[in-house]
Amino acid sequence: MGATKMKSFLVAATAALLLTGAAQAEGNLAANGTDLTLEINTVDLKFSQEVWELETGKYYQLDITSDGNEEISVVAPELFRNAWINQIVVNDLEVKSYGLYSVEFDDAGTFNISFVPIRPGEYEIYVPGYENRGLKGKFIVK
C-alpha cells in the first residue's frame, strides 16, 4: 500500500472511530458506582450470589462480607488483574492499591472494593479449598 493510500486509510479509520463514539467517558469515571454484594456463609458454604454481569468502563463497589465463623481468603486474581482498582475500604480506612490478589477474613467483617473492569471475559471469585463445596462464583464482564 502506497503512502498516500495509507494516509487516506488512517484518516478514514480515525474518522470512523470518532463517529461511532468509541470514547464516550466524560467527567469522573470513579463516581456514582453500582453497588455489588457478596455475603459469605461459611457454615452452610454458600455465596449470597454466584453470578454478576458487569460492563467494561463502568464503576463498581463490591462489598464482600464474611460471617466470621471460619478464617477464609477470597480470591479473584483474574478479575482484579483485568480491572482498575480505585480503593479498598475496611472500617472506614482506605487503601489505595496498585493491584489485588485476595482479601482475607480472620473475623466477621466487610471489605469494600471499588473498581472498573477494563477487559471483557469470565472471571472466577472463590475461597481456595472450598470452591468445589459451594464458595465459588463468577463475574461476566461484557
Question: Which keywords apply here?
Answer:
alpha+beta; 142 residues; 11 strands; three-stranded mixed sheet; Immunoglobulin-like
Descriptive account of the structure:
The chain is of the alpha+beta class. It has one domain: Sandwich (Immunoglobulin-like). It contains 2 helices and 11 strands, in the order αβββββαββββββ. The strands form 3 sheets. It has a 6-stranded mixed β-sheet with strand order 2-1-4-9-6-7. A 3-stranded mixed β-sheet has the order 3-11-10. A two-stranded antiparallel ribbon has the order 5-8. β6 and β7 form a beta hairpin. The longest helix has 18 residues. 17% of the residues are buried. About 6% of the residues have low confidence.
| Whole-number total of structural domains | 1
Measured between the Cα atoms of the first and last residue, the distance is: 35 Å
Mean pLDDT: 85
CATH homologous group name:
Cupredoxins -  blue copper proteins
| Tally of contiguous helical segments | 2
Taking the sheet with the most strands, its summary is:
6 strands, mixed
CATH class: Mainly Beta
Q: What percentage of amino acids are in beta strands?
A: 35-45%
What CATH calls the topology is Immunoglobulin-like
Low confidence ranges: 15-23
Spatial order of the strands in the main sheet?
2-1-4-9-6-7
- CA radius of gyration is 20 Å
Shape: globular
What is the helix/strand order? HEEEEEHEEEEEE
Structural class: alpha+beta
Total number of beta strands: 11
Considering DSSP H and I runs of 4 or more, what fraction of the residues is helical? 10-25%
Keywords: Signal
Signal peptide: 1-25
Protein name: Copper-binding protein
